[in-house]
Amino acid sequence: MSSRSDATQRLRDLARLRRVRDRIDREYAQPLDVEALARGAHMSAGHLSREFRLAYGESPYSYLMTRRIERAMALLRRGELSVTEVCFAVGCSSLGTFSTRFTELIGVPPSTYRRQVQDAAAGMPSCVAKQVTRPVRNREAPAAGPRLA
């Protein structure tokens, strides 16, 4: 009997985690933090973080930042906003944190990314550019090592 109730509880927790992930996907530009997400899921912040990491392989904060960086990449490809404007448009409140996380995920700072994609994505349909330049979750960009000529 206990295993059945454990399984039922696990399914309920997974449904809550999906709602949290969906909320992050929908409201990435809003000021979200783990405590607010946990309150919305009727869980403690610690429990939410542990269970989210088990289910999705990364913390809720990391998932949120990945969503924000993905959106920032799209805005930078369009080229209509400055890096600072993009930072605030995707919900980041610190340009330094945004730039650091962007560099960790993508491998180059946002300003460098903007210059690179303007040349590389010229003539490429936006749906293809989005897929090709999508950040890799759960792994940081490889560190630039010494290049042999």
Give a verbal description of the structure.
The chain is mainly α. It has 8 helices and no strands. Helix 2 crosses helix 3 and helix 4 packs across helix 7.
Topology:
Blueprint: H1 2-27, H2 34-41, H3 45-56, H4 60-78, H5 83-89, H6 95-106, H7 110-120, H8 126-132
Summed over residues and divided by their number, the pLDDT gives a mean of 85
Tell me about the biggest sheet? Answer: none
The assigned structural class equals mainly alpha
Estimate what percentage of residues fall within beta strands.
under 5%
The poorly predicted ranges are 145-149
How many individual β-strands? 0
Count of DSSP helices? 8
Question: In one word, what is the shape?
Answer: elongated
**Rg, nearest Å:** 18 Å
Q: Helicity, in percent? A: 55-70%
State the main characteristics.
single chain; 149 residues; mainly alpha; 68% helix; 0% strand; elongated; disordered C terminus
What's this model, at a glance?
By secondary structure, this protein is mainly alpha-helical.
